[in-house]
Structures
1.
Amino acid sequence: MATLDGTRVLVTGGAGFIGSHTVDALVEGGSDVVVLDSLRPDRHDGPPEHLNRRATYDHGDVTDGDAWRRAARGADAICHLAGQVGLGVDFADVCDYVHHNDTGAAVGLLALHEIGFRGRFVLASSMVVYGEGAYRCPEHGSVRAGPRRRADLDAGRFEPPCPTCGAPLEPEMVTEDAPLDPRNVYAATKAHQEHLAAAFGREHGVAVTALRYHNVYGPRMPKDTPYAGVAAVFASELGAGRAPMVYEDGRQTRDFVHVRDAAAANVVALTRDEPVSGAFNVASGQPRTVGELAEVMADAFGAGAPRPRVVGGARSGDVRHVFASPARAHDVLGFTAAVPFAQGVSDLVTNLTARR
């Protein structure tokens, strides 16, 4: 493994959740880290306490080409994490997502083109680009599940059927070779970011590594916002003494990966001896149900914590099962998630209760 000791790394969104942990890890490894972050007021109530004093912070927006050119000049590597995440409220968020994610990436890549950047580029992508995960039909083998119908969801039929025969499907680990099938606005913007970055990489001879994070959880999660992930929502509810509400029947499956592992994947992509282009799952390889997450989090809050409530229904644009194969990230990138699920949840709750 190479090091980035003394080299300059730009981290966009480095004041945020995954970004701040990535900055900490890079600084600890000896990197000269520059952070470009807008500190959006709907995400931050002023500068966060966790900002690393050994990094340089540039207050700017990734949709501003001047900010990119200023922060990226002299950078040996870039980790692009800034953007708008989560399912949001409804389709009315479409322009905000496209502005912050698609336009932000396009403006940044144009700025890198203009300043002649030729270093490594690590892009924060997401498992949402897959849509539903991988499935197998007993009769028809590997199949792609179609979008779930609202009538089925309202009737409590949450499992997608085989598109050919209608039989029940068995979910499987999704690999990076699966076709992209984004099923909500956020997912569409992440897929477009991958395509834009890959086009830039091909034209400029730049290695572009797209890291498809699965459900990241841990300290510094955004909370009390419609853009937060399910672990953050459960944590906010339990922290307020309320029972977390679990949609559908609680048996929908995800891969929960700790934020320290997500940051470690970024560092590996930035520091390995030879850069690697392409997409990689950042996942634990151990699928869990959403109901299981709620139960484990409630247990971690203690005996007096309210128990989760399964409430049915379904969030618009959500999928039933998506969990990942970590094999390519292990074999090619050299990354393996290390934080056990129970320990990660316990650490998260300890962090949350200490801050109350």
2.
Amino acid sequence: MKSTIRNRQHAFTLVELLVVITIIGILIAMMMPAVMGAREAARRMTCLNNLFQIGVALNNYQSAHDMLPPGTTDNAGPVHNTPQGYKMSWTVQMLPYLDEDLIYEHIDRSVGAYDAKNAAVRAMKLAVFTCPSADPVLLDQPPVSNYVGCQNDVEAPINTDNHGVLFLNSHISRRDVTDGISHTIYLGEKITEATDLSWMSGTRATLRNTGSAPQWGPPDPRAPNPAAKNDLWVGGFSSEHNQICNFLFGDGRTESLSVCIDVKVLQQLGNRADGKLLEHDPTIE
């Protein structure tokens, strides 16, 4: 009898177990935002590192050729966001400088980015062009780049007269960036879209402008998509990161700019040679 009483005194009742489980659940729920925040911070740093690596590759290309690569290459503009034509993107020229010589050698540059001869390479996913916060499903349909060159300061078709540093048949050197490379955006982020063309595509798939404030979060599927109605529309930068969008400047530094940045300031940063002083510093997080 004494042994039975002793066992009953040390056992948990159902109510006590439920209370413990509830407390553990509450603690886990309280910790989740911190855990998710830490994970996003790590993804954001990886994203900035990707931009930095591409920036080093751009600098090495520029040192070898005394100019940046063309944003896209084609016979004439403006560039339509369609899978036709040559339209070989600046991303292709970066491959040898990103230690991807083998992939570069397998690209047939005598034909366009969409030619069947380049289908195998076009279907490859490159980690350095991939933001870790991007939608993994959309990234593979087809493999795309989350990092895009700045082709213009305002919304305008990709053409030879753009004011950015990477555009149609461009050959921009440091001498052409008269506003200063530290005040000029070279690359930025974009969100993966269902209508994206390949990472090899020298269209809005790898080029954007500073004509609008950066967008944050996945696009609203109910919102109108200008690209669906107008294949000359390019659009701005966008990001999956909380309230910020990552950019690479010409001096090689990476910055996280707030999505609330003054659009006029952003446009000045997207123009390589407008000759204007910045009205105020960018809103940087």
3.
Amino acid sequence: MNPLPASVLAAAAVVGLALPMLGWALLARPDRAAVQTHDNLLRGLDGGDPTGPARSGPGLLPRLARGVLPGASVARINRLLGTAGRPAAWPLERVLAAKVALAAVAGLLGLLLLAAHPGVVVVLLALVVTGVAFFLPELLLYSRGQERAQAIALELADTLDQMTIAVEAGLGFESAIARAGRNGKGPLAEELVRTLQDIGVGQPRREAYLALAERTGVADLRRFIRAVVQADQYGVSVADVLRTQAAEMRLKRRQRAEEKAMQIPVKVIFPLILCILPTLFIVLLGPTVLQIISVFHH
């Protein structure tokens, strides 16, 4: 019986090392203090379960990842998590662990491939795959944040209309925000509820509003927050600001829809030229070309 090749044994060893690392990355949990703070903020809201079992602290791989990655990278991932709405399934520790685990697995597999087939192309391929694996969690978070920002921009005009009606009916601005957050179901409603929670735990209103604009990264919402802060600073009626901003947001939403509609003919040109027109030419001119070729052959 022939012994197993060294490459097979090395691949088995890499897989054996990769599975525990991926397990640590997927099972990482935030620390107990963060979980308790999150549960306290969710107390009384739908979906909060403050009586549930407390989760364990971060594992070995998350702590190792936080020590290996530079502070700027951790801060960037934290900002991306804020823009993405901080998904409950992907806390900061888990994302850091996933980055290190994926890059390590990709690097080890690249070394095995390089040992079996040395060459410049294999080296470049291994480097590219390792880099993509390292930045993959950030790319996913960035995509999630962009989708969330688009949803917030789409919901902003209707939410401002609801707040305008509530303020004109006699409610205060924060009460109008609470009503819009309670009646809404999208990411903008979640951000409004979080802003009220920040104010409720003692953060100044101006800082809470500016933090809302910074978290979401939506230009229209940032412009609205700036107008609200200026109105509060100079004593301008909030109802007038809401009415003006709601009309402006509706106009911008209509303009964006018209712009996308005007881009459709340009986007259709490339599939038309590359896919449809060659097929039509083959169907229409193919028989004629075959007849011409048969005539010349005879």
